[in-house]
């Protein structure tokens, strides 16, 4: 359970409340919104860099899930939330994203597809957290993903589903493509 008192209300001073999604939030936000736009964030990239001990793995056999990590840029989806929904959406996001506190809630500048620049709440990986996996090569990532399973199901289903949704949205993630390709090679070899 997230201690909401431990977090300041970062979004209270925002003229418009935006949320940036780079993984499952893009296609499964779980909240109502007034506007949705493709968005780009600079200085961060989508990466399988978080060891999952609950949803896609266990402490004994962790899985890998996405994190927004330093470096590069990331195409994702931004959602503008109505003023009356701000508190509820923020509480929901904290409950969803801060389960083990491996993510840090931040306000970051993003660019929307129409060129507007706004500030959005985003959840970036805490590189000092024990669940941070760091930069793995595709073989190491594929081995973890191929063997892990957690409360929400097999880790490989999460990765393949993510890649499928990204493709449907016209977002190419070459590193995830390489990881899934390596998983397929492992399966053919066994």
SSE blueprint and pairings:
Blueprint: E1 17-21, E2 35-52, E3 63-81, H1 86-97, E4 103-112, E5 117-125, H2 138-147, E6 149-150, E7 153-154, H3 155-168, H4 174-189
Parallel strand pairs: 1-5
Antiparallel strand pairs: 1-3, 2-3, 2-4, 4-5, 6-7
Helix pairs in contact: 2-4, 3-4
Please list the strands of the largest sheet in the order they lie side by side.
1-3-2-4-5
Tell me the overall shape.
globular
Roughly what fraction of the amino acids lie in strands? Answer: 25-35%
**What's the β-strand tally?**
7
Helix content: 25-40%
CATH class: Alpha Beta
Structural class: alpha+beta
Q: Specify the CATH architecture.
A: Roll
CATH fold-level label: Hypothetical upf0131 protein ytfp
CATH superfamily caption: Gamma-glutamyl cyclotransferase-like
| Total number of domains | 1
The sequence of SSEs as H and E is EEEHEEHEEHH
Question: What would your notes on this structure say?
Answer:
By secondary structure, the chain is α+β, with helices and mostly antiparallel strands. The protein has one domain (13-189): Hypothetical upf0131 protein ytfp. 27% of the residues lie in helices and 34% in strands. It contains four helices and seven strands; from the N terminus they run E-E-E-H-E-E-H-E-E-H-H. It has a five-stranded mixed beta barrel with strand order 1-3-2-4-5. The chain has a two-stranded antiparallel sheet with strand order 6-7. Strand 6 (149-150) and strand 7 form a beta hairpin. Helix 2 crosses helix 4 and helix 3 (155-168) packs across helix 4. The chain is globular, with a radius of gyration of 17 Å. The termini are far apart.
